[in-house]
Each structure stands twice: as C-alpha cells, then as structure tokens.
Amino acid sequence: MFISIDNLCFCYDPKDRALDGFSMKIEKGEVVSILGPSGSGKSTLLRLFAGLEIPCEGTFKIEDRVIFNDHSFVQPEKRGIGMVFQDYALFPHMTVAENVAFGLKDMKRSEKKARVKEVLEIVELGEFEHRYPHQLSGGQQQRVAIARAIAPNPNLILLDEPFSNLDAELQVKIRKDLRAILKNQGITAVFVTHDENDALAIADRIVKLKDGKIDSVGRPCDLLGAQ
Length: 227
Ligand code: ADP
Ligand code: ADP
What we know:
- It is a single chain.
- The chain is an alpha/beta fold and 227 residues long.
- It is built from seven helices and ten strands.
- The chain has helices spanning 42-50, 96-101, 109-122, 138-150, 168-185, 196-202, 220-224; strands spanning 3-13, 16-26, 31-35, 57-62, 65-68, 81-84, 156-160, 189-193, 205-210, 213-218.
- The chain has a six-stranded mixed sheet with strand order 6-7-8-3-9-10, sandwiched between helices.
- The mean pLDDT is 93.
- The protein binds adenosine-5'-diphosphate (2 copies).
C-alpha cells in the first residue's frame, strides 16, 4: 500500500475533536476525494497531511517512510507533498515559468528549464510561460498552480477546493482536465471538496466526512448514484 493513515486525531479545542480516528489507505496513482459539508474537518485533514498542524494522535506513512507517528514528525518541506489551494496562491511578481520553477530549487538550471517546459505542456500552457498571473484567466491560473504542485514529482498532491473560485462552465471543463492530468501522469492525489459534482468527476474513490469522522467510503457510482 502506498499511503496509510491510521487513527488520525486532531483538536483545536480539547473538548471538541475536529478529526476523530481517521484511517484509510491510498494506492499509488489513486485520486481520492474527501467530500463533506463545511466544518466536517476537510481542511484540517489536509493541513495535517501537509505538516501545517501537529496531530494529537495517529500515524501517516508513505510507503515505508513514517511521516508522523507518536515519536516522529517530518517537516513539511521534507515530505514530498505538493499543494493546490483554493485561491491558487501564485506569486504575483513572478512569471508563470518562475512560479512553476519555484519548487525546483535543487535542480540544475538546464534541468529546471526543461522540467518547467514539460509541466507547462502537460497543463496546456506552453505559450504562457512569460506572462504574469494577472494576465491569465482564473482557469489558467489554476492550471499554473497545478503545474507548480506537480513539477517536483511529489509523492502526493493535495487539492483544497481548487475550483470554488471558478464559474460553473469553467468548473466542468477543468474537472475533466484535472482528472486527465492526474491519471495520465499517475499522480496520487487527495482532493477536498463540498461539491458532489467535483467528487464524481474527479475521484476514483470518495470518502464522505461528517463531524470529523468517516461516514462512508466507496466508488463514485456506488456512493453518489449512477450519473
Ligand atoms: P472544513 O474544511 O470541512 O470546512 P475544518 O477542517 O475547517 O472543516 O473544520 C473542522 C472543525 O474544526 C470545525 O468545527 C471548525 O469550526 C473547527 N476549526 C477549524 N479551524 C479552526 C481553528 N483554527 N480554531 C478552532 N477551531 C477550528
Ligand atoms: P474552508 O471550509 O473553506 O476550508 P473555513 O471557512 O472552514 O475554510 O476556514 C477558514 C479559516 O478559518 C481556516 O484557516 C480555518 O483554520 C479557520 N477556522 C475555521 N473555523 C474556525 C473556528 N471555529 N475558529 C477559528 N478559526 C477557524
């Protein structure tokens, strides 16, 4: 098994568990959607995976490497985990190419250039490398954020409601594009959303979260009905 998460717990307030015994396994290349209403614990889960919060209990492993357990805690930048945020979080003063190159610090210049070109082709933004974020549409900015997250070949990418700022028509298109990118590149991803249509269009498997606990797990067609 590629990723295993066991009995993950987290409290902001000692009397109230934002996450309560979350366990699951994820296969390499699998795209999992975490689906749940506001307040169900989705962002907290991603923040724990990314290393932005310290769990009060639980184990997280990628292959045989312990990312955290009772005794150890790997720092965020050492986890090999990429993130795509709701608001894209692109650097406004950097070009598209510079944004994508940001996570490739340890590469040689020539390799870096080649990798940036390669991932921009994957997200179909090959022509846009010299533009600045404000010169792009919302959907294009989102694809730059995806390119930046996948450029360092992460073990896992985390996506936190990445489509919520896009209009409805664009959401339909970018859902398909994102699924194609993830599956073609064999990227393991955890995608957090409150929108069933996102989960249906993108996930291999859906985990429904309710009050910090897993409510149900299944394939999109089984969990949300045939579409
Ligand atoms: P979601 O992403 O599904 O909306 P969150 O993970 O943001 O859910 O929140 C889970 C629970 O933790 C909610 O009850 C929320 O009010 C609480 N919570 C989230 N962030 C904080 C925080 N910084 N301080 C205190 N409570 C928080
Ligand atoms: P989303 O559901 O879009 O993930 P939220 O609206 O739940 O975001 O939270 C936005 C921000 O507010 C997050 O940084 C979260 O940690 C914080 N937050 C959420 N709930 C609470 C809370 N009850 N008390 C303090 N901070 C909170």
